[in-house]
Design a protein that fits this description.
The complex is a heterodimer of chains A (231) and B (129). Chain A has helices at residues 16-26, 43-49, 62-76, 96-104, 126-143, 159-167, 174-185, 208-227, and strands at residues 3-9, 31-36, 53-56, 81-84, 110-114, 155-158, 189-193. Chain A is an alpha/beta fold.
Chain lengths: 231, 129
């Protein structure tokens, strides 16, 4: 089984080294590709100096476009699964085994690591907590299964999921929408508890003040997705 | 034929000729030119037969016939703008895919170059992937 760890990174020069070393230490079986999404800093050079494969996108496509580049690469190179591992250091590579398990046992086409399923001591602002609750409620109702961490970017994608997401993948803030699309496509989604820490550096694209705007936008996008034709 | 009619006919025919010429010089793709051609033909028809304009306006219930022309023009612009929006969406999607493929290709090229460099310099012949 060939497994590719896709690390989307946009201006993560402070974190990228730690992320790659973490993955190499705890998941030596996987290949790594850093998708440098048009960073203006040294993300690409630092990743390259560590001997990692780096795909430099010519300009910023957003996390959705960057991940899709990873999916394309994985399919072209014949990988069986992709692990999404964000470049900001909030995911821990020692959790990879845990989120791979449902895919290995063929119970899932899409595995989501959830910070809320176990008490991992993850704290965030009130706005974010409320937003996460609302999104979780909406997605759980629509998919008919309980999903606690809809925005988690710590995921495993199996081959059928990769093929599907190569043709359809939302551009910005894709995580929540991807769950709805995957459900509509009939893919099996499994959520597992995983520790997800705070980012080790850099800045999130979603500030607290923008959390509300983010939620409204995602909710709207979900309803558009519900109407979308999927074949 | 009164002056107004003459002016509107001249303008309509000019639009028609300009669009044809743009297509001929490939400054305008046929598929985007068709909608303009259709619009200019409608304009020509209405310039030639003003009675038709008056008739349609009366049937629809528009008391001031030129208002019907404005209605047509607005409808045409709406359709055109919607068409442009779909074209822009399609282009941005294709644009994304090109950027992704380009990133991937550069990576593969790098891999290949590294492989060749280590293959030619390595004495052991064992090149690390």
């Amino acid at each position: 089984m060939k497994i590719l760890v896709v690390v989307p990174a946009y201006n993560e020069e402070g974190c990228i080294r730690g992320v790659i070393e973490d993955i190499r230490e705890h998941f030596p079986d996987g290949d790594i590709i850093v998708i440098n999404d048009g960073s203006q800093d040294n993300t690409s050079a630092i990743a390259g100096s560590l001997g990692t494969r780096v795909a430099d996108l010519p300009y910023n496509l957003g996390i959705g476009g960057a991940m899709q580049a990873g999916f394309l690469y994985a399919l072209q190179e014949g990988y069986d699964a992709v692990i999404q591992f964000d470049g900001d250091g909030q995911h821990h590579a020692d959790q990879i085994g845990k989120i791979l398990a449902p895919w290995r046992s063929q119970e899932a086409d899409l595995v989501v690591g959830s910070r809320f399923l176990s008490d991992s001591g993850f704290t965030s602002s009130v706005q974010r907590k409320i937003g996460a609750k609302i999104l979780s409620f909406v997605v759980s109702s629509l998919t008919g299964q309980r999903i606690t961490d809809t925005t988690s970017g710590f995921r495993v994608y199996g081959r059928t999921t990769l093929e599907f997401f190569c043709s359809v993948y939302p551009e910005d803030y894709p995580e929540v929408e991807a769950l709805i699309l995957a459900h509509k496509k009939g893919l099996k989604i499994v959520e597992v508890a995983s520790e997800i820490g705070p980012r080790t550096g850099g800045r999130s694209s979603i500030t607290s003040s923008r959390a509300f705007y983010y939620m409204i936008k995602v909710l709207l996008a979900i309803f558009v997705d519900l109407m979308k034709k999927i074949d | 034929m009164d002056i107004v009619q003459l002016i509107s006919l001249t303008v309509s025919i000019t639009i028609f000729v300009v669009v044809i010429e743009l297509i001929r010089r490939s400054h305008l793709k046929e598929r985007y030119g068709l909608i303009w051609l259709a619009a200019s033909i409608v304009l020509i028809i209405f310039s030639l037969t003003r009675s038709l304009l008056h008739y349609i306006a009366r049937v629809i219930g528009i008391y001031y016939p030129p208002a019907f022309l404005f209605l047509l023009a607005i409808a045409f612009l709406l359709v055109l703008l919607l068409h442009f929006s779909t074209v822009i969406s399609m282009l941005s999607e294709k644009n994304n895919r090109i950027a992704q493929e380009m990133g991937i290709l550069k990576t593969r090229l790098n891999d290949l170059e590294n492989k060749m460099a280590s293959g030619s310099s390595a004495t052991s012949g064992e090149a690390k992937r």
